[in-house]
Structures are given as structure tokens and as C-alpha cells.
Amino acid sequence: MSAALAFGAGALVACGTYLVLQRTLTRVVIGFALLAHGANLVLLAAGGRAGRPPIVGDDPSPLADPLAQAMILTAIVITFGVTAFMLALAYRSWQLSHDDLVEDDLEDRRIARLGKETDPK
Amino acid sequence: MRALLALPVALPLLGAAVSLIFRGRRVAQRAIGIVTVASTVVVSLAILVRVEADGPQATQAGNLAAPFGITLVADLFSAMMLVVSSVMLLAVLVYAIGQRGTDEEAGVFHPVYLVLAAGVGLSFLAGDLFDLFVAFEVMLTSSYVLITLGASRAQVRSGMTYVVISLFASMLFLLTIGFIYAATGTLNFADLAEKIEAVPSGVRMAMALMVFVVFGVKAAIFPLFFWLPDSYPTAPTPVTAIFAALLTKVGVYAIIRTETLLFLPDLERVSTFVLAIAGLTMVVGVLGAIAQNDIKRMLSFHIVSQIGYMILGLGFFTVAGIAGAIFFIVNQIVVKTALFLVGGLVEHGTGTGALAKMSGLAKRSPLLAVLFLLAALNLAGVPPFSGFVAKLALVEAGFAVDRWLVVGVSLFVSLLTLYSMTKIWSGVFWGPVEPAVEPDSLRFRLPRLMIMSTAVLVVCTLAITVAARPVFDLSTRAATELVDPRAYVREVIGR
């Protein structure tokens, strides 16, 4: 695994995790895309050394692992679809509340308040 | 005969495609949905019969030999899960058709529901990790659509939490797949089972724990459960019911499948950790349930609590423990679905899910009260119901390996479960009828299809109770297969 790939994947996952933890929906979507790129880089690195030719004909020399590439392609398609869905959901959320932030859970708040009220202290 | 294995995935996908063509024509969509899911039930039963007689069955998609192609495998565990899940899919679909408004506003309900069915089927049949990832994504993506179906404010809010946490887990899953592939060069379960021994034990342990975390999020184990009680209750009842029945259990299935097949010796070393997680999941789940004042939210917390029991069975790392867990899962899927459907009927009849706002439903609808009582007592594990048999099996398995503390915790949690069921009972069904109810609308008018499918599920729980012995024997055999995967490996790899 080349050092550049490893550091690249690490940086992407770190930034992605940071962004996913934000309350702004657009940041969450971008963070998620970064996470997906990081994971794809790891898959690419798992496929073996760089610079090997793809499978063509009956060449006996070492070839690049096609399975890792197939998996990355599948993962890209899946994350593409889901990112589109998330964007739609974020847009709907903005339509409803004119705000880009994740809202609080009202029922949860109500129960927490109830707990405070009945507290003997 | 082995082509049967592809049908639980292919049939619902085909049905979804046809259903999309008939968008806007409700009767046709309903017929397609029912026919597709009903034939999936038949196919699953056929697979179970076949697997029960001949051992694990595998098929290679496109005839690509095992470690490289897409492998579909059914052993006893997955066949049992297939049968139970397809029956639940059918019951909930009938309920959804009976409930006004579920499939009427949105023409996509039926296609998406069928895709969900395909995803669940593929998760149980997947023979390699990447297949399992794809199956999870198929299932989860359709669940994202279902949970935000009405696109109301509450649904978008909780749906967003659900989508983000699920996706984060999916990305972790993808990373884990990358690591496992880098370490072993294969993702096929059977192939992995053989090659994983060559991996240094520290790396193996890291992989085992990553898999545990990834599926732990999906299965909602402590401390990764917080998204579940937040998001499930906002969806329409049939959607919540099918999520409660299947999604978390698919996560548990994946935990049991991967940890027994690949990492059994590794995870056994940290069995105290697994048991602690199981105990905390049970306790936190049930305490959360007691604090709630809404039927669906209470039941959602109970999902978490019951997941603890399933992990408990795995945590003993004995055939008896895993057998108990499998029996518990099968029973729990039916009971939990039945309870959610009853909760939905209560909401349907009274227009609210808040315990404080209703009372005396036992007088208004004795049948509903009986259905709730039978399912609730089963959930709490009161003898002679099958929930008791499942818990007894877990307790015995725990005593056999001298895990007294966690067994004690599980019994205490049972008591609390019973308490919270009593809370629903006394809040909703017991007591006088509210004075606001007009005498002529005293009797509930419940849609026949909804009450029918709920009643069928409660009868199913009774059937499991009566047939506890054969079902438990089946679970024990499934557990034996899991702990000793030689037959599984031979079937897939062919040597």
C-alpha cells in the first residue's frame, strides 16, 4: 500500500467524519461524500501495487486486481444514488423549516423536561 | 433446484419493476405486491425444506467459481430467517393495504416495499461480504424512502438522522471490507473461513471488532442505538412494524453470521466485553421504554432491549447460547411485529399514541385487548409462551458457562419489560372509557384487513409456542452448523 494512498484515505475519512458531525445538512452531505472517497481509496489500495496493467488477453505478467476496481465502481454507484437522496431530503428540510440545521426531537425534549419537573431536588 | 436460491431476491425485484409500470393504479399494484410476497413465502419454505433435508445449499451467479463470483448460500439459519421475514413482509403488506392512506398517497410505496423485500432476502442469502454490503444498501436505501414517505416535518427530521447514521455505518462497512480484502485477498465467507487463520491474531481481532461495530449500528446495540427510538416512531405504522421486524434483525443476523464463521476464536477472547454490551443494551433499552409516554416509542425502545438478548446468546459462544439466540430472534420478529400492528390499530382507533390520552380500550374493543395481551405476555417471557422458552434457553446456556451476573441482569430486565407492558395495558386498555367518547361510537370500527393480519401474527406466536420443540431443535441444528462451518465451506468451495 503506497504511503500517499494511505495518507489520502486517512485525511479524507478524518475530514468526512468531522463534517458529518456538524449540524448543517449541506456539510453532512459533503462530509459523507468525502467518507465515501476515503473508503474507495482503501479498497483501491487493498487491490495491490500500483502500476500493474489491467487484465487484457493472456498476458502472464502480474495484473491489476479487477475485483477491487469492480467493488469501487459498485460503491461509487451506490453512494451516488444515496447522496442524491440526501440532497433531496436536505432540500425538503429547507423547504419545511427554511433552515439548514437538523432540528431537535420534540418528544424527547418533552420527556427530558418532565423528568426535571418531577425531580425532588 | 438450486436456482430457487435466487428467487427470494429476483422475484421481489421483478415485482417492483412491474409495480412501477402500474404506478397510479392502486388495485394492480396491490395485487402485484401480494402475489410477489406470497410467492416469496412459498419459495422460502421450499428452501427451508430443502436445506433441512440436505444441508447448506449454494449457487454461483453466472457460474463463476466460488471465491470470485457472486455466491448465494442458504444454510439452516438463513433459511429460517428467510421464512420468518417473508411471512412478516406478507402480513405487514396486507395490513398496509387495509390501512387507509399508506399506499394511496404515494404511488411508490409498493415498488419500494418490494425492493426492501429483495434487500432483506439478499442479506440472508449473501455468500460474501461485498454482497452483504450491496444487500444492506438495497435494503437501507428503500428504508430511507419508506421512512420519509409522507415528507412531513417530523419525518424529514428523524429521517435525516436515520439516513446519516446508517450511511456512516455503511461507509465504515466499506472500509472494513477494504481492510479484510487487503489482509486476506478474498471476501467470500467460505473462502475467508479458511484463509483467516493465516492472518496475525491482532489484525484479526481488529477486523472482528470493526465488523461488530458496523453491524452493531445497524442492529442498534448499546451505545450505538440512539438513532432507533428517534426515527422509527415517526413513520407510518406498517413501515415502523416492518422495520422493527426486519432491519435490526438483519443486523443481528450479520453479526452472528460473520462472527461465528470468521472470528469465533477471536471474539471468544473478549466474550466478557460482548456480554457487557449485551447487558447494557438490555438495561438501557428497557429503562428508555419505561420513561416514554407513547406506545410506538415504548415499543421502539423495546426493540433495543430485545437486541441485547440476541447478543447475549452469541456472547456465551456455545451452541446452546447461539441456538437460544436464533430461537429468540425468530420468536421476537413475530411478537414485535404483532405488537407494533396492535399499537397501530390503537392509534388508528383513537387517533393518538399517547398513553395519557386514552383509557378503557378493553371495553371498546375486547379483541384488540386480547391480541395485545397475548403478544405482550410473550414479549415479557411469561410462561407458557414461546418468549419464555426463548429466555429459558438463554438462561440455561448462561448457567452452563457460569455467567451468573449477566443472566441475572437479563431476568431483571424481563421483569422491567413486564412492568412496561403493564404500563401500556393499564394506560390504554384498562380503566373506564373516557367520558368524551359518544355512546354510539363506543365500539371500535377497525378495518377488517388490519385486524386480520394482526390476529394472524398473534396466532403465529401461539403456533411457535405450541411447536416450540421442533423450532428449537431446528435452531440448535442451525447453531451447530454455524459453530462448525465445514459443511457450509464444502458446499460453497466444493471441496
Largest beta sheet: strand ordering of chain B: 1-2
Beta-strand fraction estimate of chain B: under 5%
What's the number of structural domains of chain B?
Answer: 1
Which architecture of chain A per CATH? Orthogonal Bundle
Largest interface: A-B, 41 and 37 residues
Q: What is the oligomeric state here?
A: heterodimer
The largest sheet of chain B, given as strand count, sense and whether it forms a barrel, is: 2 strands, antiparallel
How many strands, what sense, and barrel or not for the largest sheet of chain A?
A: none
Indicate the low-confidence ranges of chain A by residue numbers: none
The helicity of chain B comes to over 70%
Instruction: Give the beta-strand count of chain A.
Output: 0
The average pLDDT value of chain A, as a whole number, equals: 82
Overall outline of chain B: globular
H/E series of chain A: HHHH
In DSSP terms, counting alpha (H) and pi (I) runs of 4 or more, how many helices of chain A? 4
Would you summarize the structure shown here?
The complex is a heterodimer of chains A (about 120) and B (about 500). With about 120 residues, chain A is an all-alpha fold.
Give a description of the structure.
The complex is a heterodimer of chains A (121) and B (495). Chain A starts with a helix and ends with a helix. Chain A has one domain: Helix Hairpins (Orthogonal Bundle), CATH 1.10.287.3510. Chain A has helices at 3-20, 25-46, 66-97, 106-118. The model of chain A has no long low-confidence stretch (mean pLDDT 82). Chain A has 121 residues and is mainly α. Chain A is elongated, with a radius of gyration of 22 Å. With 495 residues, chain B is mainly α. Chain B has one domain (2-493). A two-stranded antiparallel sheet of chain B has the order 1-2. In chain B, helix 4 (109-125) packs antiparallel against helix 5 (129-147). The model of chain B has no long low-confidence stretch (mean pLDDT 86). The chains are: A mainly alpha (121), B mainly alpha (495). At the A-B interface, helix 1, helix 2, helix 3 and helix 4 of A face helix 5 and helix 6 of B.
